Amino acid sequence: MNIVCLDLEGVLVPEIWIAFSKASGIPELKRTTRDEPDYDKLMRWRIGILNDHGLGLKEIQQTIETIEPMEGAKAFLDELRERTQVLILSDTFTQFAHPLMKKLGMPTIFCNSLIADESGKITGFQMRCAQSKLSTVKALQSIGFETIAAGDSYNDLGMIQASKAGFLFRSTEKIQADHPELPAFETYEDLKAAIFAAL
Fold first, then answer.
1. What's the whole-model pTM score?
2. Which of 88, 95, 117, 148 has a CA 20 to 30 Å removed from the CA of 162?
3. Range of 48's domain?
4. Which of 64, 82, 101 is the last residue of a domain?
């Protein structure tokens, strides 16, 4: 039995932190998991910048409300879900994901949680589990699923490499150059064809 595991940001929706960087006028927040392999280090750095500027959950959520899925993403996801089970594995947070999931037709997503005080100041974050994407793929495999995975960033490599078929989608030149063994696609049609061929 197959299950397709997809990254969210950069694959189905634009990067939330890049959108917030533009909205807030803070260029440092453009840094993502495409640039920084250490997610814990990246998030602690982001929280420090937010606190330095007096920004919190409310401001980020206002930006997220304006984000639309990438062109063709919902149709791509709908076609996949007609053929097989699909699970979105993301290092985003429950407080960010819900409005985006509504726009994508409410697919299942596993992600993490932010810790915020009553004022909305972000004080920390709680990961669902260590190496959450790879751990989830391994757990799915342990209960009889064969996984097919796609993503664009460093934090997707574990689940992609551990799956029976794995693909890079709209990734960086550096990640593609470092992993020439992974098929890399730029369009939903090509990614869909590769996934269907692996089912």
1. 0.94
2. 95
3. 17-64
4. 64
